[in-house]
Specification:
The protein is of the alpha/beta class and about 375 residues long. The protein has ten helices and 16 strands. Helices cover about 35% and strands about 25% of the residues. The strands form five sheets. It has a five-stranded mixed β-sheet with strand order 8-7-6-4-10. A four-stranded mixed β-sheet has the order 11-12-13-15, with helices on one face. The protein has a three-stranded mixed β-sheet with strand order 1-2-3, covered by helices on one side. β1 and β2 form a beta hairpin. The termini are far apart.
């Protein structure tokens, strides 16, 4: 129904290696995929891992990749073989689009601004009707030396799921519509969407193609309104990358959690089979989840992009904005590895889908331990030098 894209924006200051932002119209990329692509890019172009950032739009109307969410699907061995073949081709194409972006480097200026779009709504209504939401629309522009608008990078913190499970065609959802609209309005410009911390927000209302078009138009309009109000960014870029280990809850907590799940038994059976396979292979269930954390600082403190792995709830973006009020902080989720939901302490304590139940579908042994937010914030502060 709509083409899906991978796009790359290469940025270089001085004589050091370039940095590349890669955006994809997929539910998510896995660490296995991004690690393999990063290895290729380092070998071919000398770009270190900290200077390569992957972000997925989280459209649910895209192909399955790797073994992501394997518990959610009833697929044959032949279908899984096709997914493995596609994943290999995807990795080759990602490496290729990165190389293409690097070949097109030319003098440019960056600028930043932020607007707002109103269709995101917190979806955890069973825990409260007015849950937190982030309706900000961060915008980074790239302008050539001649004054032409070369690229627009923009974000939003809302599940890219206006279309629901009855729609079974490829489509970029509202993020895809917004990108296409901006590229139509600004011929010759590439528009790249960066998903924010929208794990606990949904488009409201949703369910039809007409609503997809409407939300996409609202988001494109919000971006357009910012274009004349951006502030120039000084030409420097500092990049950091690290892995934080997030412990899973102990066995007793997992047992209680599993007994309280209100999930179709077919998923519980598939999850049990997967866990048994992991036990036979490794001798134990995993005790931690490796979570990538990445910080790009543009122009010193002109703009700070914090990119977190997993489906990240909104509390992280709001907390960073509170703790660094003197900085322009852009917080993205769905970056580098979408391995499952990443709750805040509040969401973890409340429970529910984002608080732990969805870990079944992602094939994880259980919910996270209580210090998940503390560990992530500690690593973010370390990379920020705070």
């Amino acid at each position: 129904a709509m083409p899906l894209y991978a796009k790359a924006l290469a940025l270089q200051t001085g004589r050091g290696p370039a940095a590349v932002l890669v955006t994809v119209d997929l539910l998510g990329l896995t660490a296995a995929i991004t690690d393999r692509v990063a290895t290729i890019v380092r070998r071919r172009h000398g770009i270190p891992r900290a200077r390569l950032l992957f972000n997925a739009s989280h459209t649910h109307c895209g192909p399955v990749v790797d073994e992501q969410l394997s518990v959610a699907y009833d697929l044959s061995p032949g279908q899984w073989a096709a997914i493995r073949d596609y994943t290999s081709e995807l990795e080759r194409r990602l490496a290729s689009v990165i190389a293409d972006a690097l070949s097109r480097l030319r003098p440019a200026r960056l600028a930043y601004g932020a607007g707002e779009a109103g269709f995101a709504a917190n979806r955890r209504v069973k825990f409260g009707p007015d849950g937190p939401v982030d309706r900000s629309v961060p915008v980074l522009t790239v302008t050539t030396a001649s004054g032409g608008l070369d690229a627009i990078v923009f974000g939003y913190a809302c599940h890219n799921t206006t279309l629901q499970d009855g729609f079974v065609q490829y489509h970029g959802d509202y993020a895809g519509v917004a990108q296409a609209a901006l590229e139509t309005r600004h011929p010759g410009t590439q528009a790249l969407f960066v998903m924010g911390c929208g794990a606990d927000a949904n488009p409201k209302p949703r369910g039809t193609l007409a609503l997809v078009e409407a939300h996409g138009a609202v988001l494109a309009d919000a971006v357009n309104a910012v274009l004349e109000q951006t502030v120039a960014i000084r030409p420097s870029l500092d990049t950091r990358f690290g892995i934080v280990e997030l412990p899973f809850a102990d066995k007793a907590t997992r047992t209680r959690w599993h007994g309280q799940l209100d999930i179709d038994p077919v998923y519980l059976r598939r999850h049990a089979v997967l866990m048994e396979r992991v036990l036979r292979r490794d001798g134990r269930l995993p005790t931690v989840q490796r979570d990538p954390v990445q910080v790009w600082r543009f122009g010193g403190t002109d703009l700070t992009l914090v990119a977190l792995g997993g489906e990240v709830v909104v509390d992280y973006a709001l907390r960073l904005r509170r703790e660094y009020p003197d900085r322009a902080i852009w917080t993205a989720g769905y970056s580098n590895d979408v391995f499952g939901y990443v709750p805040s302490r509040r969401v973890l304590d409340e429970g529910g889908y984002e608080g732990g139940d969805a870990m079944i579908y992602y094939g994880r042994p259980g919910p996270f331990a209580g210090d998940v937010e503390t560990r992530i914030m500690r690593e973010v502060r370390r990379q920020l030098g705070a």
